[in-house]
Amino acid sequence: MINMIWAMDENNLVGIGDRIPWHIKEDLLYYKSKTKGQIVLMGDTTYYSLKGYYKEKPLPYGKIYVATIDKNLVIEGCHMVYDIISFLNDLDKDIDLWVVGGATIYKLSLPYANRLYISFVKGKYEGDRYFPKIDYSNYNLIWENDTDKVRYTLFERK
Ligand SMILES: NC(=O)c1ccc[n+]([C@@H]2O[C@H](COP(=O)([O-])OP(=O)(O)OC[C@H]3O[C@@H](n4cnc5c(N)ncnc54)[C@H](OP(=O)(O)O)[C@@H]3O)[C@@H](O)[C@H]2O)c1
Fold it and tell me: From the CA of 13, how far away is ligand 1's center (Å)?
């Protein structure tokens, strides 16, 4: 099962440089509650950005796959993915993978994802990394929870 989890604003914005454009604590806690101890896949930009926050502390995941096209890049403690398409095609169906960003990795993974955990952030922010357009007719809305700042949703592929 391939899960994707992300937050985006009303323009599908997900990032500015290597950062998230907003600071919404409740969404951060939601993200952490879903991904803690899980098997995750992220791009190298997102990995280094997270390392900037966690510094010497280990990232709170069970197993980390880091995607990069730089075949010389090896990150200690992580499993490197040099070809994300082959990786997703060959992934064992019993594995519960969480794709956690960023923009490039979301775009490449979307066709393979079974479940989308989307946090719709209310408002429009400044930034330069966007999620691609989603055809929601391919998905069923399974769950939602609307709050002041964010609408939390789970979509499942039909
Ligand atoms: N809003 C959210 O929920 C959320 C969550 C996570 C991240 N973000 C944001 O997303 C932004 C980062 O996104 P990004 O697109 O710049 O970087 P990214 O998705 O984290 O990483 C992109 C990397 O993927 C690698 N790549 C490209 N094609 C590949 C392939 N076919 N196989 C394997 N690896 C491949 C490239 O490696 P090379 O470097 O070798 O070219 C590239 O650097 C930041 O602003 C971050 O804050 C937002």
Answer: 14
